[in-house]
Amino acid sequence: MIVEIGHYALALALGVSVIQAVVPFWGVFRQDRTLASVGSSAALVSFGLVALSFAALVTSYVRSDFSVANVVANSHSAQPLIYKFTSVWGNHEGSMLLWVLILTLFGALVALSRRSLPPRLRAGALAAQGLVAAAFLAFTLLTSNPFQRLVPVPAEGQDLNPILQDLGLAIHPPLLYVGYVGFSITYAFAVAALIDGRIDAMWARAVRPWTLLAWTFLTLGIAMGSYWAYYELGWGGWWFWDPVENASFMPWLAGTALIHSTVVMEKRDALKVWTILLAILTFSLSLLGTFIVRSGVLTSVHSFATDPARGLFILFILIFFVGGSLALFAWRAPLLRQGGLFAPVSRESALVVNNVFLATACATVFVGTLYPLLLEMITGDKISVGAPFYNATFVPVMVPLLLLLPIGQSLAWKRGDLLGAGQRNAFAFGLAVLAALALLFFMRGGPVMAPLAVGLGVFLVLGAGFDLGERIVARASGWRAMLSRARGLPRSAWGTALAHAGIGLSIIGIAAQAWSSEAIAVLKPGERLTSGRYTIVLEGMSPRTGPNFRAEVARFQLFAGERELAPVEASKRVYTARAMPTTEAGIRTDGLSQAYVSLGEAQDSGVAVRLYDKPLILLIWIGSLVMALGGGLSLTDRRFRLAAPKRAAPAAAVQPAE
Amino acid sequence: MRRIVLIIALMLPAMPVAQAVQPDEILPNPALEQRARAISGGLRCLVCQNQSIDDSDAPLARDLRILVRERLVAGDDDKAVVDFVVARYGDFVLLRPPFNAHTVLLWGTPFAILLCAVAFLWRRARERTAEASASTPLSPEEQARLAALIEPDDKP
């Protein structure tokens, strides 16, 4: 019964979303306020219904109701409760339901937000959002119904893919989806603005918190996915330029550009047309990502759905929303008035440069991901595009952007002083160069590019810190004045500095991997293996039985030089229901570095063991967390919380004096 | 299509549990082994999804790793080894696609986009300065007319 209620609620939600999509448009057209405001109630009802539906599916999973085909295919009665719960979205149908849940949640949040929006804008945005929700609800109901019953009812489920039986599944997809789907709001606002034919700083202020929210969650989602892959897949890789990773990375790059261009629009009323286009493109890339993951056109570790009917349906959704919005853009964008002139050297220009590089980087990933597919369709030739391609194209695009970042950050609005900005960053730059030189000297004979990359990271961290420091110290006398100044700085200034420093930290972590080392050997109990700074001694192997798996566990003593660290365990598991093996790496954190032990096949009387020394690797993810923290801090800025305050003090006022 | 789905499904279990290079494959000569690792990192495991043979535990990847090492031991230089593998399996095996007529767009797009953007911005900036300078001076007649428009009101 619960299952049928869930199914019915989902169907009702589709109907309500159609109302949400159609009636407000009609209301705006007829100038009828009552009709135009239907969108808000519809968005709330639609969210309530999808939430009910989602709760029904969760209940079926938690109760191991094997009369539901989806539960049978992805769950097992012996699973720990947490995995029964997360299995809900560990498959195509359930994850679609999660996707739609978050989509309607965002619609409901827009309906509830008390920010005073122009009513036409709110109505238009809710309608556009309703249209997106309706399309995906129809997709879920027609091609991916998670509530399908199964007769006869099997006694036991087929278990979830063991790789997904991990805490990562509880965290990674929800974060990622909030990011992906969050950009639907900026898309909806862009469409509404185009229909309205009017756009101003008010629009930018309305859209910015949503963009920041989506970006923050997408950052966390990608970082979490990367760490999950790192510890679960057992060879210590953390980014593979896999099509599906790229699918989440493209909206991130476009979204990063969007955050920056909306700032220009909010503060200076410029870059309007570009910002609208970027808002459309960002969500289009989210949709493209959905298509890539769910159609199976590009097979990868992540794609669980490879049904042509689904692929075709999503392709149709993709073409409708991307094509429709771009057509709307081509038709209406010329009506938008450009404003806000600025000098070639100014904060605005710096942000334009930021957008140019980010857009290029995004295009690079886009081409690299889809080119093999297109080439094969057109010529039949098969090529592969892997990490070496991106290293040769993506990295050269990002390096100049990051080098210019601290300088652009300290330029003033309207008309900046390049020399002054250079001078302000000279100290940070000098320290960064010193750091790079010192590394080159102490790590003689090692990699050459890595110390330079570390230098770049140091420059970003120091640049962000000094910029903030100067704003606090400048013209303030005594620590009391400085403290009040620090408190007076807008949260968004702190957020910006943190996000930029976070990139620097991540880059240091990435660069440090050039000094990682790997050792492989067959070990018998008592034998040792050394890699980089770490040595392990195999103590012994023992079998262990988990709730739904059997494991062979190897225990190691671990030494960093002479110092003994806590012992580490690595294991190989076989999940009984699917007879599928996984490796569970043994990871010991040592400061910011990690020793990573992974088991191979048992050979003769020993076992193949691989030991990695991963120096400073945690910085990669700590940097991402700091970035996300910056995004979150900016979100709490006063401007975003209060209902339409008077024009916020322009940041130029708190810039250091020229 | 069903069959392809089935094949992919069958391949799945073998794929992600990577145990790549096995101890018995490692060459005794560390310099050669290092070259072998570097070469394997750029060769795609043909039955996997976007993994190099250095990362993959598929049997075919193992065969290729051993092949690469055999060629190195036989005295081939790095390029000869890669050419040998490409001759057998085609460009598909290269994770860094070669630059040729079919991949011009792939390699060129990033730089073309950057160039276009810079050209566009430069043109816009020039237009703006042209507009700005065009609007400054008033011709003598215009000044006279302006004066005429302002004057009458001032005289009581």
Briefly say what this structure is:
The complex is a heterodimer of chains A (658) and B (156). In chain A, 63% of the residues lie in helices and 12% in strands.
- Count every beta strand of chain A, where a strand is a DSSP E run of 2 or more residues: 9
Q: What is the overall pLDDT average of chain B?
A: 78
What is the overall shape of chain B? rod-shaped
What structural class is derived from the secondary structure elements of chain B? Answer: mainly alpha
Total separate domains of chain B: 2
Briefly note the structural class of the backbone of chain A. Answer: alpha+beta
* Shape designation of chain A: globular
In CATH, the homologous superfamily of the largest domain in chain B goes by the name: Cytochrome C biogenesis protein
Unreliable stretches of chain B (pLDDT < 50, length at least 5) are 1-18
Strand content of chain B: under 5%
Number of domains of chain A: 4
Stated plainly, the CATH topology of the largest domain in chain B is called Helicase, Ruva Protein, domain 3
Q: Quickly count the helices of chain B.
A: 6
Reading side by side through the largest sheet of chain A, how are the strands ordered?
A: 2-3-4-5-6
- What gap, in angstroms, lies between the N and C termini of chain B? 93 Å
